[in-house]
Design brief:
2 copies of one chain form a homodimer. Chain A is of the alpha+beta class. Chain A contains 3 helices and 8 strands; from the N terminus they run H-E-E-H-E-E-E-E-E-E-H.
């Protein structure tokens, strides 16, 4: 994965490239504020459309593999194991940029979404329900039948 | 707050407006999957630029007030109280759209960001550090000195 490009970020550091955590290769993982379960919030944003596709979790291993491979790898809390996005659905995510927030407890991925579908329901984004006058209304179409995705 | 417009969402429901949680006014809050601490992850996205501004938390009261007032209200875990975004900094967020994800454990706000600054460091976004070859590099400029924001 390249650290540059994508997400509308400036092509060059605007501050002269001040390093938050430089040095040995694992230091950047120590800069993340892992929660009590060893996890950090991970947000995937479509690098082309800007749409928020999903929110998931990463443990140290998942984040390290994501950076190394350039493919989004999460930690499934329900299955308690690494979840290489797309391993079953084919809807993998190529990571174009990776960012950390100011208090270190969330990472933001700019991704190229395979198939244009991130959600297990067959929709582009997991955020397909919109608040309207006191209820959640499904406003996004199913692009592909989940039964044909997970077979 | 209006439930329509903003965020590139379709002007009309694409599925005919299937209600996820209709009925009495508090039902929509019950559709949220609150964690053990009674919180849900909340992401603020700039409705104009599409940039992810910050990630925070909401409890039931914060989310209810956000929907009612049209102003982003979070729950500060460090201070253990409601945090009306902008109450100290002046950098409030007008909520143009509110969405819930497929498993109900994250909400996404499309906001108009006052002052164009969401981060307490005086930057537009809290995600100002980018991964580059094994380190986090600060790539976004400080738009306003924090000392002049919090005085």
């Amino acid at each position: 994965m390249s650290g540059s490009g994508g997400g509308g970020a400036p092509a060059r550091p605007a501050t002269g490239g001040e390093a938050v955590a430089a040095g040995a290769s694992a230091d950047w993982l120590d800069a993340v504020r892992w929660d009590a379960a060893g996890l950090v919030t991970a947000i995937a944003q479509d690098a082309d459309s800007g749409r928020i596709l999903m929110v998931a979790w990463m443990n140290r291993e998942a984040l390290a593999e994501t950076a190394r491979s350039g493919r989004a790898v999460y930690f499934s809390r329900s299955r308690q194991r690494l979840w290489r996005k797309g391993e079953e659905s084919g809807h993998g995510q190529a990571v174009r940029e990776l960012r950390l927030d100011c208090d270190g407890d969330a990472v933001l991925l700019q991704v190229g979404q395979a198939g244009g579908i991130a959600c297990h329901t067959g929709r582009e984004s997991c955020f397909f329900s919109r608040w309207e006058d006191g209820r959640w209304v499904v406003v996004d179409p199913v692009l592909k039948d989940p039964e044909s995705i997970y077979k």
